[in-house]
Specification:
single chain, mainly beta, globular, disordered N terminus, disordered C terminus
């Protein structure tokens, strides 16, 4: 399967490369202003490169639910280099009744095409209101490469919706209570399990291209005040985090909870270095999903090692009632397996990622999606010089049920055991391979 996936990507890249060499063009935007960049993009075709010259520009919009710049072709948007072409987020993000979604850059690659964004400095805005600088969405395609960017973060650099691709060789300055990246699966779940539930019916993506890849990046929080995460995964998201350095930061995976949200589905975290000077709670906070964690180095002032939790076991204080529409996992909820008095296995808990039937239990009735066991494995990680052991959250209980009752070693997860049959995906990611340069030149 992996060999087939690699061959498919190679074929796509070859076809795109041939077309690029013979037909693609370079289109030079007159300046870095959003009007000039939009004008250049408007005349671009799949395979073209739009170059953005040196300068400092602010991208903004005064219209609710619109973006400053939109890319809907398979093009390269190329700045003149880090700290040479600088774009600042000027969007209010909440212009209309406090609820707009205005942000500077939207990327929606067409089927069979790849968007690349490279050679910029992006500055966040203090008006971000938890909205992103960049939104990427592509209906579960291999769709994008974002590389050689410097992000001066205030809030969120990018949200990725049902898109697969790679972020590589970026420098991400984070901070101010913000996630740097949010990764979503296929849409938003409803009571009939549409949307994000589609992600949970897909084959296990371990070792394949079916993920958002982060590789060879530097994540740095210079404020020493991080209270969110560099990577946040939710609603069936799938990601691979490898060969990165993380300074004063961490990763979190959301659980199935809140309104109709489902948790993160799958992750692979390996060959990274995590270090913190200020005291932070954890380098990884895992509340759903499964995957592999190996060959990482964790050092510094983290309060806990990577920690496993299951909010539906104990959290009765969420707004709108116990875990809102999903309810608690307490042995009586139709969402869950209920093989014992603890409700085990809890729906979407750690180690359960693939639905074998459509769950209809949201809102307190119906039936949960039966899910096969897919344990989490970690091996060859060091924790301040010693071998790592994962932690299971031991805070509050409800009706005498604790997280340790439903998340257990040597069943739902394995410490210092290599995942049988697992082979990492090709490194570097195939999308990092350079394509032939355009041969023609059009100047707008």
């Amino acid at each position: 399967m992996q060999k087939l996936a690699n061959n498919l990507i190679t074929s796509i890249l070859f076809i795109i490369g041939v077309c690029t060499a013979s037909e693609a063009a370079i289109i030079n935007a007159a300046s870095c202003s959003q009007d000039d960049v939009n004008a250049a993009i408007a005349v671009a075709s799949n395979g073209d490169t739009v170059t953005v010259p040196a300068g400092n520009c602010t991208w903004t919009t005064e219209i609710s639910n619109t973006t400053s710049v939109t890319i809907s072709q398979g093009i390269t948007l190329q700045g003149a280099g880090i700290d040479v072409t600088t774009i600042t987020d000027g969007c209010a993000h909440n212009l209309v009744n406090g609820g707009g979604r205005e942000f500077p850059l939207a990327v929606s690659p067409p089927s069979g095409q790849i968007v690349r964004i490279t050679g910029f400095t992006f500055n966040g805005s203090s008006n971000d209101n938890w909205q992103e600088f960049m939104s990427i969405g592509s209906n579960l395609q291999l769709a994008f490469r974002v590389d050689h960017i410097k992000w001066n973060g205030y809030r969120l650099m990018a949200s990725i919706y049902a898109a697969f691709g790679v972020f590589d060789h970026n420098t991400i300055y984070t901070g101010f209570n913000a996630n740097s990246f949010e990764i979503y699966g296929n849409g938003t779940v409803g009571g009939s399990c549409s949307g994000a539930c589609l992600s949970f019916t897909a084959p296990n993506p371990a070792g394949t291209n079916q993920a958002v890849y982060f590789e060879d990046n530097a994540f740095i929080d210079p404020s020493n005040q991080l209270t969110a995460a560099d990577i946040d995964c939710i609603n069936g998201g799938q990601f691979v985090f490898r060969y990165n350095t993380v300074t004063n930061g961490g990763i979190q995976l959301h659980e199935t909870s809140y309104t109709a949200q489902r948790g993160c589905r799958h992750f692979e975290v390996y060959n990274n270095t995590f270090n913190t000077t200020p005291e932070l709670a954890w380098p990884m906070y895992i509340r759903a999903g499964t995957g592999v964690i190996f060959n990482n180095t964790f050092t510094g002032n983290y309060g806990n090692p990577p920690t496993l939790n299951n909010y539906r076991t104990w959290d009765i204080n969420d707004i709108g009632g116990p875990r809102r529409g999903w309810g608690l996992c307490d042995g009586s909820n139709p969402c869950d397996g209920n093989s014992n008095q603890y409700g085990y296995p809890c729906f979407d808990q750690i180690g359960r990622i693939t639905d074998t039937q459509t769950p209809t239990c949201y809102g307190g009735s119906g039936q949960g999606g039966a899910q096969t066991l897919t344990p989490l494995y970690q091996w060859n990680n060091t924790w301040n010089g010693s071998s790592l052991t994962l932690a299971v959250w031991n805070g509050a209980t409800y009706n005498g049920i604790s997280v340790a009752d439903v998340i257990q070693a040597n069943r739902d997860y394995y410490d210092n055991v290599q995942k049988p049959g697992y082979v990492p995906y090709q490194y570097p990611h195939p999308l990092i391979s350079p394509l032939p340069p355009p041969q023609n030149l059009r100047v707008l």
